[in-house]
Amino acid sequence: MGLRDLVYGVYERRLASALERSGATVPRHVGVIVDGNRRWARELGLDDPNSGHRAGARKIRDLLGWCDDAGVELVTLWLLSTDNLSRPEPELAPLLRIIETLVTDLAGPQGRWTIRIVGALDLLPAATAQVLKEAAAGTEGRPGVEVNVAVGYGGRREIADAVRSMLHAHAAEGRSLEEVAELLDVEHISEHLYTRGQPDPDLVIRTSGEQRLSGFLLWQSAHSEFYFCEAFWPDFRRIDFLRALRAYAARQRRFGG
């Protein structure tokens, strides 16, 4: 271990201890945009950009362990957007295999987390959708943090799907469009989101230095706090996570203003 690692280790332990002693408020739901995998690979001069995605996938298990330790109850990980699905097949196929392997690993016997797949699964290749659904199916009730894996996810698509689902539900009950319009409110739409029944994210973290949401949890993040980290996702450390929790605890949340 080098001097740099030693210093960071000491700082990390002090930061974790300070957060624990202060009784800092811990976000119940953390959303994470795991950005910068391909740029990480390019900066290292790696020929295969998927090396970045594989390194990023390995980081996920670390993050979930940190969330367990901190007392976070729910994590939403954005792994693949609807826009990503338009990538050329030679680029998209390896990324889908990496995601399938990751979810299967997290859902395996060594995993301690409840996995839920969120997104427009009908846009994914049928084989990928099947692997993800089957892997997640046996994880209900595990003791660790609950994990939403957002694959084929886009915030605008989610809202459109929620409205479509709501209209179908009311139509099945025999209501006219005029009657639905009279009943329509925010809660009706929320009941049909991919994350229905779950709390909205308290904290959204994005890595790689980008300071935008790009449609992530577009509806649910209306009152979220945001933390933007310069590190590419494969380089995201526990100390970065603790800094995000510290920043969240220091903020005075104002709902609606």
Give the helices and strands, then pairings.
Layout: H1 3-22, E1 29-33, H2 37-43, H3 50-70, E2 74-81, H4 89-106, E3 114-118, H5 126-137, E4 146-153, H6 155-172, H7 177-183, H8 186-190, E5 203-206, E6 225-228, H9 238-250
Parallel strand pairs: 1-2, 1-5, 2-4, 3-4, 5-6
Helix pairs in contact: 1-9, 2-3, 3-4, 4-5
Salient structural properties:
257 residues; alpha/beta; Undecaprenyl pyrophosphate synthetase; 13% strand; 6-stranded parallel sheet; 9 helices
Strand arrangement in the largest pleated sheet? 3-4-2-1-5-6
Structural class: alpha/beta
End-to-end separation: 48 Å
Report the CATH superfamily.
Answer: Decaprenyl diphosphate synthase-like
The major beta sheet can be summarized as: 6 strands, parallel
Question: What overall geometry do the principal axes of the alpha carbons give?
Answer: globular
H/E series: HEHHEHEHEHHHEEH
* Regions with little confidence, pLDDT below 50 for 5+ residues: none
What is the CATH class name? Alpha Beta
Task: Give the percentage of residues in beta strands.
Answer: 5-15%
Number of helices: 9
What does this structure look like?
The chain has 257 residues and is of the alpha/beta class. The protein has a single domain (28-249), classed as Undecaprenyl pyrophosphate synthetase (3-Layer(aba) Sandwich). It has helices at 3-22, 37-43, 50-70, 89-106, 126-137, 155-172, 177-183, 186-190, 238-250, and strands at 29-33, 74-81, 114-118, 146-153, 203-206, 225-228. The chain has a six-stranded parallel sheet with strand order 3-4-2-1-5-6, sandwiched between helices. Helix 2 (37-43) crosses helix 3 (50-70) and helix 3 runs parallel beside helix 4 (89-106). The longest helix is centred in the first third of the chain and has 21 residues, at 50-70. It is globular, with a radius of gyration of 19 Å.
